[in-house]
Specification:
- The protein is mainly β and 176 residues long.
- It folds into 3 domains: 54 residues, no CATH class; 33 residues, no CATH class; 58 residues, no CATH class.
- It has 1 helix and 14 strands; from the N terminus they run H-E-E-E-E-E-E-E-E-E-E-E-E-E-E.
- The two termini are 50 Å apart.
Length: 176
């Protein structure tokens, strides 16, 4: 190695070492901790649809039997649904094609006014067994509670009818 190369060698090594060192980075770091509880008291409710009585009959080449009648519905009372009175049928022209269809649906009994819904302390204990109806009453907070300590410990306590309790802890780290 020549004299001149020996003198340039330390400079070359210095330049090579400097090229391998990465420049320092500058970043913002954000750390956020969030805790929350949500306590909700909704209305307790019921819903029901009364089923009414229905009767249908149809056919071809069918007639009412002697001393009989078409099937009918007999009107209900203040607390009873309509009932069915069966008819008597026979083929009108023997040997000819015929069709016959009969359908009966027994309706629900009728509850007297003022019965069918019991609400006590914000709870709907039972609902009417008829009619399209919607019954609601304010829910019951009862023992519903939620706490968060300064250490981030959550305690949720179930409540009464129509309540919900939700607790949440979020840890978020952002690097920019």
């Amino acid at each position: 190695m020549s004299q001149r190369m020996k003198r340039l060698l330390p400079l070359a090594m210095f330049l090579m070492t400097g090229a391998l060192v990465a420049p320092s980075a500058n970043a913002d770091l954000t750390h956020r901790l969030t805790t929350s509880t949500q306590l909700t008291v909704d209305a307790a409710y019921t819903s029901g649809t009364r089923l009414g009585s229905t009767y249908t009959v149809s056919g071809n080449n069918i007639k009412v039997s002697d001393s009989a009648h078409f099937g009918t519905m007999t009107a209900g009372t203040a607390t009873a649904a309509a009932t069915q009175d069966l008819g008597g049928y026979e083929i009108n022209t023997a040997g000819s094609a015929f069709s016959f269809s009969e359908s009966w649906t027994q309706g629900d009994a009728i509850n007297p006014i003022g019965t069918g819904v019991d609400v006590a302390s914000g709870v709907v204990a039972d609902m009417p067994a008829y009619g399209t109806n919607f019954t609601s009453s304010g829910g019951v907070a009862g023992t519903l509670a939620g706490t968060i300590t300064s250490a981030g410990v959550m305690t949720l306590t179930a409540g009464g009818a129509g309540t919900s309790a939700t607790g949440q802890f979020v840890s978020e780290i952002t690097v920019r």
